[in-house]
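Retro notes (design track)

What went well: tokenization of the new backbones is finally stable.
What didn't: we kept losing track of which sequence belonged to which structure.
Fix going forward: every design gets posted as structure first, then sequence, in one message. First example under the new rule, 167 residues:
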């Protein structure tokens, strides 16, 4: 049984391992191992994870069974968009998918931002499983980001949004 809780600094090594495993399982077939390694090296350094952990207007959650971290979620208020929370990361260990861990993490993240009216995310257009998950949870496509500015991945993404309850 996995319980959703706020992540702590002691979780970051396990979270990084989960993200490395999940990124390879999700994206190697789409972009190749070398590109995925490059993304991981940039996105999931210990310093980058710690910065997410200590950010004030954000929530960093893990699904924990007392021995392992089975999933993680990270969302933060948008700096650019009013009353919008950005869902940046929601990953479940490949071996534990389809057991409700992602649903539980997502349900908790939805409640963490009382001032937000919209939740927004970007998803790889070829990641059919993630797109289906988000559609089931009330998201719809509102645009596309080519991610081709300097310093960006060059990998296009779909932009999905969902109105949050109570607004």
């Amino acid at each position: 049984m996995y319980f959703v809780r706020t992540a702590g600094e002691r979780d970051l090594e396990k979270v990084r391992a989960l993200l490395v495993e999940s990124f390879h399982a999700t994206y190697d077939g789409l972009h190749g191992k070398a590109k995925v390694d490059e993304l991981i090296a940039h996105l999931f350094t210990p310093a980058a994870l710690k910065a997410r952990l200590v950010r004030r207007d954000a929530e960093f959650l893990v699904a924990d069974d007392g021995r392992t971290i089975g999933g993680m979620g990270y969302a933060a208020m948008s700096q650019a968009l009013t009353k919008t929370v950005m869902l940046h990361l929601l990953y479940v260990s490949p071996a534990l998918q389809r057991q409700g861990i992602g649903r539980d993490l997502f349900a908790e993240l939805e409640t963490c931002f009382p001032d937000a009216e919209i939740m927004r995310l970007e998803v790889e257009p070829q990641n059919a499983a993630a797109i289906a998950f988000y559609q089931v949870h009330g998201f719809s496509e509102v645009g596309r980001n080519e991610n081709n500015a300097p310093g960006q991945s060059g990998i296009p993404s779909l932009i999905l949004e969902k109105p949050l309850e109570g607004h």
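Added context from the reviewer: The mean pLDDT is 90.
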